[in-house]
Amino acid sequence: MDFHALRDIVVLFGLALFTVVVLRRFKLPSIIGFLITGFLAGPYALGFIRNTHQVEQMAEYGVVLLLFTIGIELSLKELMRIRHMVLLGGGLQLVLTIAVVAVLGSMGGFPFPQAVFFGFLVALSSTAILMKLMMDAGEMDTPQGKAALGILIFQDLCIVPLMLFTPFLAGGGKGLADIAVVSAKAVAVIVGAHYGARFAVPWLFEQVVKTRSRELFVLSIIFVGMGTAWVTAQVGLSLALGAFIAGLAISESEYSHQALSDIMPFREAFMSLFFISVGMLLKPAILFKFPLLLLGLVLSIIVGKALLTSAVGIALGLPMRIALIAGLSLAQIGEFSFVLSSSGLKYGLLTPETYQLFLGASIATMALTPLCMKLAGPVSDFMTATLPHSWTRGRSSLAQNGGKVGYRDHVIIVGYGVNGKNLARTLKNLEIPRVIVETNPFTVRSLRREGEEIIFGDASKPEILEHAGILDARIVVVAISDAAASRRIAAQARSMNPSIHVIVRTRYLLEMEPLFRLGVNEVIPEEFETSVEILFRVLKRFLIPQDVIEDCIAEVRRDGYDMLRSVSKRHSHAVGIAGFLSGAEIGSFRVRRNAPMEGERLSGGMLRSQSGATVVAIKRGDDIAANPDPVWEFQEGDIVLLLGTPEQMRAAAKLFEPA
Fold it and tell me: CB neighbours of 645 closer than 8 A, spacing ≥ 6?
């Protein structure tokens, strides 16, 4: 038997393991390791693999699976949430990049259809590399992360149309008639997939799930994905389009998450072969024959794409800092450009030499992506610090925020994500004045129509905080996902108003120490709060009594936040009475009907004897009694301000609730 194919796979995966492990030590993405593996193992370098045809065939399955999983991951609801950035941002970036490259290519002497095809290749960025790097850095929920995601989604949606139009650029089609036929076929397949997603796919998965067989479930996923891809190929469309449509069909079912988790290992294995196969195609001779041309191409692609994408972000109203970071993040060539380049070579839009130049430049831009992302922050900070604020705040009508807000003793909320939205809604219900600072122009426009007090701009700039009334505010809450921006905002707020109370939401415990050093009063780490919520849900499923659950959670919180407070105390800037209340808390409680405290006199000693907490003040209606007399009788609706340890506060809370 001939085991050459098996030997080739073993050699490639073994070499990939070594290469990727070495590169990960330098914090480079795995994709770069796969490209280098293919380059080394291919017929033009060490020559471990002579016949690349079988590897390329398996790599095709990798492209199909990648589009299939992208379709599953794309949610129509998610698309609607960031639709402005997807449609406007992605559309502008794609059209502008193609147009600029086409003009430059025509000026360089290339035929216009070929120059347009060059624009196709340059316009796409790497979803695989960028999403991996952003997820590792925890930047998916940042403004620049959302902007990059919106543009990438549009690029992914345009992959299939670009592939369909490639033959027409080469003159292989018959004009508008062919385009109309292809479009009609695509519409028919999409309509069929839509009804399949509503009826056939859920019914199929329901029958499979009833068997409780994971093997059958995985087989059904592969059948739906590959089957749809095969059907589209039979009607003259691409395998990639069918796989993408099949993924969208599954994404709307309740089994999408399980389907994605089951198919991911197959995708990763075949996609690694795809990148390895691309690396095999690169001839080392091209690197020595045109070193300066390659260097110029790489720099032109990175600088050009960064500037064009940043310009799109600024045109949409984003602050310059966010637009620059997103632009530098998207400055590489994408993996689907390799698929397009293969079609271009097939149809004569690329010569073997230009194809090799493109491969070399593309691999270099991918390898430089981590460096671009590392430099994005300092470069954007330098630009925003150097240029006037009127240039960097976001060139849109939203940047004209009018005069300074007229509130006093209010809350400034930086970021209108899930945390900021919940806080703003609660403060509104309690009629506590608040001002929101947000960098998303579409969110700002929407909230202003609803009458919300919201300011467009970057809260790390003193002009924005001053406009939000930082000098008269009581609290500033930083509820964004960008750790670097949170530190800048906290430092700026503290320097402008030394007495303001600063609360910062952060993702990880490791980010707490730098924030406390900057003078932040309270840091809420999501990592810790998530562990508390998991504990609550686990104990609840075991039917543990509610009071026992609360005691367990209180103990976890006490141990955890005692540790967090110890970090805070090392960097505490606080003055006044707070410095003398180590380990104590101040809390307010409302007297409920039929609560143990209702009708009790302060002199009766119930509160002191059963909880140990001390009454500081009592509010009844609009009247406040500080240090109330012992004859005070508690009534329903009284708000009592207590001082005590966390344990005393928990004991006191039970006295104010109905027995």
Answer: 583, 584, 585, 612
Q: Tokens 């990639």 label which residue? A: 240
Q: Position 249: which residue type?
A: A
Strands 411-414 and 475-478: parallel
Cβ atoms of 14 and 24 closer than 8 Å: no
- pLDDT one-digit tens code per residue, 55-95: 666 667 777 777 777 777 766 565 666 667 778 888 899 99
Confidence at residue 200, expressed as pLDDT on a 0 to 100 scale: 76
CA 400 to chain CA mean position, Å: 28
In angstroms, the CA 36 to CA 46 distance is 12
List the strands of the sheet with 501-506, edge to edge.
454-456, 434-438, 411-414, 475-478, 501-506, 522-525
Which residues, other chains included, contact 265 with Cβ-Cβ below 8 Å and sequence gap of 6+? none
Neighbours of 586 (CB within 10 A): 15
Say whether 524 sits in a helix, a strand or coil: strand
Q: Do residues 616 and 643 lie in contact, with contact meaning Cβ atoms separated by under 8 Å?
A: yes
pLDDT of residue 2: 59
Token duo for residue 20: 């990727």
Residue 484's H or E segment, with its range, is helix 483-496
DSSP-based three-state secondary structure for 506: strand
Cα–Cα distance measured from residue 226 to residue 228, given in angstroms and rounded to the nearest whole number: 6
**Pair 355, 345: CB distance under 8 Å:** yes
3-state secondary structure string, 63-99? HHHHHHHHHHHCCHHHHHHCHHHHHHHHHHHHHHHHH
C-alpha span between 275 and 290 (Å, rounded)? 23
**Residue 27 backbone class (left: φ over 0; alpha: ψ -120 to 50; beta: rest):** left
The helix/strand/coil state of 201 is helix
Residue ranges of the chain with pLDDT lower than 50? Answer: 1, 397-399, 567, 574-579
Pairing of strands 454-456, 639-644: unpaired
8-state DSSP, 239:
H
- Determine the angle formed by the axes of helices 30-41 and 352-367, rounding to 10 degrees: 140
The angle that helices 143-169 and 127-137 make with each other, rounded to 10 degrees, is 170
Q: Given this model, what pLDDT does residue 302 score?
A: 94
Cα 219 to Cα 140: distance, rounded to the nearest angstrom: 32
Cα distances from 606 to residues 618, 639, 645, in angstroms, run 16, 17, 17
Q: With left for phi above 0 and alpha for psi between -120 and 50, is residue 632 left, alpha or beta? A: beta
**Strand pairing partners for 643?**
586, 614
